[in-house]
Amino acid sequence: MPKIKLSDNTINIIKEVCAEFDNKESELINVLHKVQGKLGYLPAEVQEVIARELKTSVAKVYGVVTFYSFFTMIPKGEFPISICMGTACYVRGAEQVLSEFKRQLKVEVGESTSDGKFSLNCLRCVGACGLAPVVTVGEKVYGRVAPTQVKDIIAEYRNNVCDVARTA
Amino acid sequence: MDVINLTIDNKPVVVKKGTTILEAAKGIGVHVPTLCYMKLDDLNIENKPGGCRICVVEVQGRRNLAPACCTEVNEGMVVNTHSIRAINARRTVMELILSDHPTDCLICAKSGNCDLQSMAHKLGIRQIHYQGEQSHYRKDTSPSIIRDVDKCIMCRRCEMMCNEVQTVGVLSAINRGFNSVVSPAFEMNLDHSVCTYCGQCVAVCPTGALTEVDDTGKVVRLLSDPTKTVIVQTAPAVRAALGEEFDLEAGTLVTGKMVAALRRLGFDYVFDTDFAADLTIMEEGTELLNRLGRYLEGDKEVKLPILTSCCPAWVKFFEHQFPDMLDIPSTARSPQQMFGSIAKTYFAEKLGIKREDLVVVSIMPCVAKKYECQRDEFKVNKNPDVDYAITTRELAALIKISNINFNSLPSEDFDHPLGESTGAGVIFGTTGGVIEAAVRTAYELHTKKELPRLNFDELRGMDGIRKATIDFDGLPINIGIAHGLGNARKLLEEIQAGKSEFHAIEIMSCPGGCIGGGGQPYHHGNAEIIKKRQRAIYEEDSKKAIRKSHENPYIQKLYEEFLGHPLSEKSHHLLHTEYFDRT
Known about the structure:
The complex is a heterodimer of chains A (168) and B (583). With 168 residues, chain A is of the alpha+beta class. Chain A has helices at 8-20, 28-39, 44-53, 58-67, 87-91, 94-105, 150-158; strands at 79-84, 118-123, 135-137, 140-142.
């Protein structure tokens, strides 16, 4: 993994989040959650700063980051796409939808497209099983998605027409 | 006192409230099998993640089996430790662990010493009913320690040692479920991490997942090379533990047999690291008196307390974790390195051979010593002062390979001149020993009077942090002692905060000091063994004719013939070192 140098601004953002939680080690998960919300992902250097601030070991921080699938060390795309693999979505064809996304975007699950526009992930249940299979792009939810619709969904964002989904 | 009455295997038991089923059963002689659980009494070390489920027992009226190691007793509890349900569950758990474990026991470094192997044997496992995918991970080799996590059973003992006891924080469980392994951050190799190579993870690993780098093959090859003169030095803690490898009672001193065995292995000269320990006291003790003298004269620049620097894991620890304090520890090299340096100059000259033709092997209770002897500052023209450091366990293996009947060996003496030592050199092997040795010499050098006593009981013991004030004939000297790096950290943070009142602090990385080192025979969770080794060390000291380093006639001769005086220019060059910021 190539080493990146964090800007002072980024370091300050991390320190602020840690301070919000009183620099308590027991708040590690909350700190990681919030920092990822602000930075989009949790590269090694970010974890090092968090470990220092919370006075814990970076191995422990890395342990938590790798335990929860929500946390990622890979920068998410501008438009993060998630396919629900919960039971209801799965039986209604989520897997075919997922393979169509993989084919069209030429990425595997957990990866981002080379232009940084899209990233692809699976998630477990967004609580909208009646709409199965469900796909989310950012915070926008698409229900009853068929593989044939995948192309249109991607096109919607490829030309940047919708910026509602810009979130992490 | 609140007491609880319960029944275990039909026997009534009365125990204190808060006792676990495991401890209560132990009290009546029922040993429930455990695997991940480990407790070192008096050292404040306990691992009970309740992870392996080998210790499950049946509790009447409870739907599920209870893990004995982390279930507290209740009033009226009826426990059956060997019901058919408990036995079957235990066997199932064992088979499941084994289903994801390599079966190369015959050639595993831990074979014969493996807790998993002996537990499988104890439970009578003859078949593994669950066949499935096995997890695979790359092997990670460092200068001291090999990680082969395919053999890891996630007992978390290493993690507990690394994080809670040592506060080094290299190891953590990472990933999830089937993919989880114990690893440094970002899955980096140990030699890129802040690992100190203290080896306490190796000392407690129940399987072959963490082992030391094996250098015995290289030593055997060198011993058969006629162009090389091969000499050996033995650390003080080795003689108090080596016997355990040959079924002798823990705490049996085997100094003479060890010397005899080394001679039979083919070493040309059998010397003693204790000699170099005496030398360390001359240098470090003088350094302490120098700093103290300057301090008393009102010198504001002088750094106090002085910290001992014999332990390579401790050195690497402060280089990583306290880079702002590199000028506080003594600059004296460790006894291992002082020995190597003197051997390859003074002794090589005496023999009339080149340093390249002299091979120095050390027998150490430690795996960090392997790393220490590879550090660049301890090499001259790429030739290391100490060529190989092998552990107590590796020496035992060499003796066994060579068909030497250890227990029937006669007692033999070390060779001269680097084999003569005092009782002060011997006690370097236990926590409190280095500073007691330093006190014996510094007192007499400072006061020019003879010590009224030689045993300093206030410096001895097993408490993690100990404090004492020794009266240097009207001058009170405050002494601190820490063993275990977590305890060392506490004393260092006091210094950082300007709150330390000590003049001198002794630090050893391993719980108990070198007697509890990562290269010693495995204690399998029995802390009594470490205490017995400590008693053996003090016993050897009390039997020595000379018990103060500065009275060692061969040390005096070395200064007369070669070094001049402590802290001389030659001493600085050969016996002192510098530290590096590793952040």
